Amino acid sequence: MELSRQDAMNGKMGRVLVVDDEAQVRKPISLSLTKAGYEVVEAEDGEQAIRTLNAGDNPLMVDTILCDIRMPKINGTEAITYFRRQYPTVPVVVLTGYPDVDMAVSLMKRGVQDYLVKPVSKEELLTTVHKSVDQHLLFKDQFVV
Description:
Helix content is 46%, strand content 16%. It contains 6 helices and 5 strands, in the order αβαβαβαβαβα. It has helices at residues 5-8, 23-35, 46-54, 76-86, 101-109, 122-141, and strands at residues 15-19, 39-43, 64-67, 92-96, 114-117. Strands 2-1-3-4-5 form a 5-stranded parallel beta sheet, sandwiched between helices. Helix 4 (76-86) links the parallel strand 3 (64-67) and strand 4 (92-96). The longest helix has 20 residues, at 122-141. The radius of gyration is 15 Å and the shape is globular.
């Protein structure tokens, strides 16, 4: 009997790292994703996200990173550069309140999966995250023996 991806992950749809310095944005997004069946890990800024991913002996494995751009300490573009270098197979989705076409194009060229503008509808958020997680899980499945 074949297990679905959700069954294989103990009933979860995938693990998403949500990086945003604004709790009033991060918390509702995390709640929406959790209610949709995702395991969510939160970080207040790029520095905390990097620490969270690298805590302990084994890096935290995530299926998608949802990242704001304008944040204190390590900002989103710096964090995304790190994520793409250290975790090149993990899709990154930008979620920003400051849309910038040039920045969006630059980030997409650097491997960002999608670029969402706040406020984002729950439906658009869930559709984008589902697509990103699914792409990552399909990619991971290529290397399973």
